[in-house]
Amino acid sequence: MTDDEKAPEQPPETEAESPTGLTRRQFFGTTASSAVVGAGLAAGSWPLSSSPARAAEGKQDAHVAPGELDTYYGFWSAGQSGELRIMGVPSMRELLRIPVFNWDGATGWGITNESRKILYEGLTPAGKRRADKQGGVLRNGDTHHPHLSLTEGSYDGRYCFINDKANSRVARIRLDIMKTDKIVQIPNAQAVHGVRPQKHPKTGYLFCNCEFMIPQPNDGRDMDSPDKYQTVFAGVDSDTMEVKWQVLVDGNLDNTNCDYKGRYAFSTCYNSENAAHLAGMMRKDRDHVVVFDIPRIEEAVKKGRYKTIGDSDVPVVDGTKGSDLTMYIPVPKGPHGINTTPDGKYFVANGKLSPTVTVVEIDKLDAYFRGAMKNPREAVVAEPELGLGPLHTTYDGRGNAYTTLFIDSRIAKWNIQEAIEAFQGGDTNPIKQKLDVHYQPGHNNATLAETKDADGKWLVSLQKFSKDRFLNVGPLKPENDQLIDISGDKMRIVHDGPTFSEPHDCVMARADQVNPRKIWSRDDPWFDDIKAQAKADGISDLTKANKVVRDGNQVRVYMTSSAPNYHITELRVQEGDEVTVALTNVDNIEDLTHGFTLTNFDVAMEISPQQTSSVTFTADEPGVHWYYCQWFCHALHMEMRGRMIVEKA
Ligand code: K7E
Ligand code: CUA
After folding, report:
1. What angle do CA 153, 155, 157 make, to 5 degrees?
2. Per-residue confidence at 28, pLDDT binned at 50, 70, 90?
């Protein structure tokens, strides 16, 4: 039987098939409210909820009227753009971009002293050497996996974490101010891919998969012996963003997840062959999932059962096959995503090169680590065949799973319990529906599905290709993020959203679970460094200071602004001075952001209400240099500017 034969009948998926005479895009465009959906169905013979014999589609209204607010925050990675994006769901409106590993001219990320410190201080020695060669920053990032901090399995609104595959870093974003506040580069690693915050009792560790295998240490040895390359799984303390320990493993590491009890993390491996080339990586029919026993790893570190590698002092324990710290579960072929069910009972590893997903019962892992289970495959409780290219699975909290099928361009909805029964020999077909998506989905995620509060309302499917879905913008096309109503028995696509390169993954939290501040607090530790410097310069309150301090050839300018004025509009320095401008926005009105752009100096920064930002540059060009406010803040915004006068040395 083919997968298609197994799947229940589906609504028409091509534009020509619509019985209403509308193209499908027009149809959904006119059915923004649930009342119209009902009318449309009654009028035509669209084979959906109008027939009592068929499963009903959800009827949620995805339209968020002008002035109305979304019910979920979405956190979208931005792939090669290196940032994090905040979306409103279900409107799919982009609300904010948060620079993380990229350079950003709007906010001055990579330019201000505050951001440059964050971008630099967590780098490895090799990372610092590279940054030093190019002005103190690494310039690009490749974000894949945003995940929010949890307390006892629920979102707690503290942090978002995100990986950088390109330069092997992970970052923490403070959700109260929506700014990146810590970045750490993982030693002994190339390409940090899967990351996942511990769910219980609270985050806790941030678990990090280092994808590529390399010689350990990577100092010129073993370069022509790929069979000796190894990679590590890393535990990062999310409170300090320090790497606490690493685990050497067999094979590579792709995606990772963890349980709801605080004991296990688990990662997929697609290169158990230790191959350096594609054909070799595909040789075996089974790769594996490696399970990490976190308390045992901590114990091993405590007892000194570790080594260090190269110039890193991070303890590295041995988790290769035969170790008592890990368990290797063979799964078919090249598994990719790994997703824990919201009830905490199972994880699902997605086959990618196998049409199957593998369901593992988490409670059964204990038996293996106790020594009571010899064959790790005994922990597998189901392995349904879903279609071609299963990559990632998400959940509705009602016992159903939704798996993206990359090659089929579909999402398969299937029932976990029925898949388990079928695995035990029952004749149930666990597949409930297959839905065409456009095109080639990677991750999908449902609202709150990475927490125990999965609510089964909305599913977002992130497509790698948009092809013909939008106006042609040339050879580089947007991705296509589709919003799907999963509140009914059948999935229904309600929105196409183009996105710039390339959201791999997203998570969604209820709006009440994320509570950012409206303006900055002057007590924020963000300002600690500049406050300390100001104090040394005799300034106790930056909101009252308009003062220029000369210290040799260093000049520190403390300035305030309130719409539409800078309170220093004429600044005299000498050619060659190293100038630091610390600017405080004393407006305390919500949304009244100012900025500071020094023309022809490549200097720009944001100052939102009650924020201080600082920047340091060399006044190397004599003459008159205007600085201006680049955020339109007032009717006299154009006039909000001043002169830096650089006198010839
Ligand atoms: Cu599947 Cu990097 Cu999460 Cu992309 S990974 S799809
Ligand atoms: Cu201040 Cu524009």
Report:
1. 150
2. very low
Interval between CA 624 and ligand 2 midpoint (Å): 20
* Nearest CA, atom 2, ligand 1: 144
77 forms beta bridges with 84
User: For the whole model, what pTM was predicted?
Assistant: 0.91
Whether 330 and 377 have beta carbons less than 8 Å apart is answered as yes
Beta strands 603-607 and 641-647: pairing type? unpaired
Alpha helix (H) ranges present in 260-415? 278-281, 294-302, 365-370
Single-letter amino acid code for the residue at 161: F
SS3 75: strand
Phi-psi region of 15 (alpha: psi -120 to 50; beta: other; left: phi over 0): alpha
- Please state whether 322 falls in left (phi above 0), alpha (psi between -120 and 50) or beta: left
Please give the distance, rounded to the nearest whole angstrom, from the Cα atom of residue 504 to the centre of ligand 1: 5
**Predicted local confidence at residue 351, as pLDDT:** 96
Residue 16 has pLDDT above 70, yes or no: no
**How far is 601 from 578, CA to CA, in rounded Å?**
13
CA distance 487 to 414: 15
How far apart, in whole angstroms, are the C-alpha atoms of residue 301 and residue 294? 11
Give the Cα separation of 127 and 187 in Å (integer): 9
Paired with 289 in beta bridges are: 268, 329
What's the whole-number average pLDDT of the chain? 92
Q: Which residue type is seen at 281?
A: M
Q: How do beta strands 565-566 and 506-510 pair?
A: unpaired
The two structure tokens encoding residue 241: 């963003």
Distance from the Cα of residue 229 to its chain's centroid: 28
The model's pLDDT over 471-522, given as tens digits with 9 standing for 90+, comes to 999 999 999 999 999 999 999 999 999 999 899 999 999 999 999 999 999 9
Task: Note the ligand closest to the C-alpha atom of 564.
Answer: 2
Residue 490 φ/ψ, nearest 5 degrees: -120, 145
Q: What is the pLDDT of residue 501?
A: 87
The rounded Å distance from CA 640 to ligand 2 centre is 6
pLDDT value of residue 275: 94
Indicate the top mutation candidate among 357, 392, 409 to test ligand 1's pocket, ranked by most ligand atoms within 8 A of CB: 392
First to last CA, the chain: 84
- Report the C-alpha gap between 427 and 9 in whole angstroms: 19
The pLDDT score that the predictor gives to residue 54 is 60
Length of the chain: 649
- Residue 4 Cα to ligand 1 midpoint, Å, equals 25
Q: In Å, how far are 180, 396, 397, 421, 438 from 415, measured between CA atoms?
A: 38, 10, 11, 10, 23
| Integer Rg of the chain from CA | 27
Q: Which DSSP category does 228 fall into?
A: G
What's the CA gap between 479 and 502, in Å, rounded? Answer: 7
AA identity, residue 247: V
**Span 99-153, pLDDT tens digits:** 999 999 999 999 999 999 999 999 999 999 999 999 999 999 999 999 999 999 9
Q: Which ligand is nearest to the CA of 637?
A: 2
- Ligand 2: atom nearest CA of 632 is 2
Binding-site residue positions for Cu cation: 144-145, 193, 336, 392, 443, 504, 594, 629, 631, 633, 637, 640
From 168, 195, 336, 481, mutation site for ligand 1 pocket: most ligand atoms within 8 A of C-beta: 336
